[in-house]
Amino acid sequence: MTRTPGPAPEPARDPLQRWARWIFWLLVLIVIALTLSPAAYLPKQAFTFWDKAEHALAFATLALLGALAYPRRIGVLAVSLLAFGGAIELAQAATGWRSGDWADWLADAVGLVAGLPLASLSRCVLARSLAGRSAP
Question: Cα dist. 109→24, 47, 80, 127, 136 in Å?
């Protein structure tokens, strides 16, 4: 019995999209490494608000880069990043040297909600900039 292959991945349409994909996946790996590293290897937190801000900033950046890299898959991207944030918290709880915190997951979601509109805005600004360059 032969299997029919699934849909082919969406090819990168322009250099910005290609770079955004590379940087997005590199950042995913960095987030995994930092969130699962023992706390002793990380800088000390001055107060807990900064920890939540770091989560929000990381996920806003992931959302921004992901939306630039995969502009036709925003819904899948949003759900996947939300699941990724939850998986990080579950993995941290399972490590024994970190603890999972659902407030961190909420901060991830806040960053995600902030990053997606930034991607749309940056795409519009970039399109206007490029249109201005090509006009005679």
Answer: 17, 20, 11, 28, 43
Question: What gap in Å lies between CA 90 and CA 99, rounded to an integer?
Answer: 8
DSSP 8-state secondary structure symbol assigned to residue 58: H
Residue type at 49 in one-letter notation: F
Cβ contacts of 103 within 8 Å, gap of 6 or more: 52
Answer whether 21's CB lies under 8 Å from 77's CB: no
pLDDT tens across the length of the chain (136 residues): 555 565 555 666 688 889 999 999 999 999 999 888 887 666 565 446 677 899 999 999 999 999 999 989 999 999 999 999 999 999 998 988 888 888 999 999 999 999 998 887 877 777 677 666 655 5
Q: Is the dihedral of CA 106, 81, 30, 33 positive or negative?
A: positive
User: In this structure, how many other beta carbons lie within 10 angstroms of the beta carbon of residue 108?
Assistant: 26
- The reply to whether the predicted model has a pTM over 0.85 is no
Provide the 8-state DSSP code for 14: S
The alpha carbon of 11 is separated from its chain's Cα centroid by a whole number of angstroms, namely 19
Residue 30 CB coordination number (10 Å): 11
